[in-house]
Amino acid sequence: MDEVKKAPELVIFGDLGYDELHAPDINMKMQGGSAYYAAAGASRFSDRVGLLSIVGSDYDMGKLALLGADTEGVQTSPGSSFLCVCKYAKDGYKRDIQIFPGVRERFSIRMIPEHYLKCKYYYIATTDPKKQGDVASYIRSTVKGAVIGIDTVKEYLVSRHAEISAAMAVADVLFFDMNEFRLIDKPLLESKAFVYKLGRYGAVYSGKGTAFHAQAPRVKQVEKSGSGDILGGAFMAQTAAGAGPESALKNAVELATMSVTAFGIEHIIKNRA
């Protein structure tokens, strides 16, 4: 008799791959991608996180064990994994980002494991807007009562506005920062809950007739890659576990803030030894 697989509390879809960081006196390559960062945040609050992504043959799946996530939804395809190259100027603040998608275009909704579709909460982290829309629409039509969160970046709101707007229209909770807010079609916000990310000033939640601000702790920022994804994953995982939005946002902001205090995020990953 086949074992019945337990549904995750939260399924995270997005990129898995590598980040390269180049800054004065620092050159490093490490695990990265929006789904990795979101899962790192989510795993601090849930032991039942499912990952949905595609990686290349160069990806070290063993590293994902530190997150304690269900990886049955992570497919491997011949070729290179997603890569984000981030180069900082000498002042340590200005940065140039290059994205190499790798095999992510090969992802298909047919790859979604059946037990992932028994989940109620989904977080669609930043990735190709067409893929975001495909996954969001499939979940909406397949999973009754699904709660879907979605994030994006300014570049996609400029270059692929129609696609990301269509994906956002399917979601329940939108995540964005100040630059992205200016580009979002405002009628979208009227029927959605949203988390407005304010960087060092924390974040604002609005939804169901309520709004509140979670202040970020004061820290020295070293490197901020993935902090927004960490916040999103942490918020959605707590929501899936039954936490109210105010406490979920407070904890998510605190964790995301701590993530920027060092290169890499090993210092915030839950110890599962």
UniProtKB/TrEMBL annotation:
<dbReference type="Pfam" id="PF00294">
    <property type="entry name" value="PfkB"/>
</dbReference>
<dbReference type="InterPro" id="IPR011611">
    <property type="entry name" value="PfkB_dom"/>
</dbReference>
<feature type="domain" description="Carbohydrate kinase PfkB">
    <location>
        <begin position="31"/>
        <end position="264"/>
    </location>
</feature>
<protein>
    <submittedName>
        <fullName>PfkB domain protein</fullName>
    </submittedName>
</protein>
<dbReference type="InterPro" id="IPR029056">
    <property type="entry name" value="Ribokinase-like"/>
</dbReference>
